[in-house]
Amino acid sequence: MAVERTLSIIKPDATRRNLTGKINAKFEEAGLRIVAQKRIQLTKAQAGEFYKVHAERPFYDELCDFMASEPVVVQVLEGEGAIAKNREVMGATNPADADEGTIRAEFAESVGENSVHGSDAPETAAAEIAYYFSGLELVG
Ligand code: RTP
Ligand code: MG
């Protein structure tokens, strides 16, 4: 399987509860390497641009407010099949449906405040990494 990179975000519900280290341990235990990482404060407009694919969904406004409510940690994870592997480690969107041992099963508070974001395909991973990181911040 090819080595991939994927964009991960540790969301405000998790940064607020000081869970960055515990979540990063889950990634590393699964064989994902954190190759770039920074803590940033999104504006609502920046959150809205990032999640614009969901613009017509009923939860969009709430999602944008939530993502801009407190700082997030954005990161690039690398590894074999990293996009799918990350989504496995994250678990289902709704923590009530997430498998035991996944990040969302252990840490998420609700379907909206669910601790992590992960890219869902190679095209979205490339675009999402470029949204947050410049080439200079990514060691080849
Ligand atoms: P993400 O994009 O954040 O990695 O999550 P995902 O693929 O598992 O879920 P997606 O369908 O892309 O939804 C994006 C985010 O919107 C919030 N959401 N809220 N209140 C609701 O019913 C609802 N549904 C989705 C979650 O924060 C979800 O991760
Ligand atoms: Mg998604």
From TrEMBL:
Pfam families: NDK. It is found in: Cytoplasm. One of its GO terms (molecular function) is metal ion binding. Its main location: cytoplasm. Its cofactor is Mg(2+). The keyword Plastid does not apply. Keywords: ATP-binding, Cytoplasm, Kinase, Magnesium, Metal-binding, Nucleotide metabolism, Nucleotide-binding, Phosphoprotein, Transferase. Its EC number is 2.7.4.6. It is an enzyme of class 2 (transferase). ATP binds at K11, F59, R87, T93, R104, N114. SMART domains: NDK. It catalyses: a ribonucleoside 5'-diphosphate + ATP = a ribonucleoside 5'-triphosphate + ADP; a 2'-deoxyribonucleoside 5'-diphosphate + ATP = a 2'-deoxyribonucleoside 5'-triphosphate + ADP. Major role in the synthesis of nucleoside triphosphates other than ATP. The ATP gamma phosphate is transferred to the NDP beta phosphate via a ping-pong mechanism, using a phosphorylated active-site intermediate. Belongs to the NDK family. This is Nucleoside diphosphate kinase. It comes from Salipiger aestuarii.
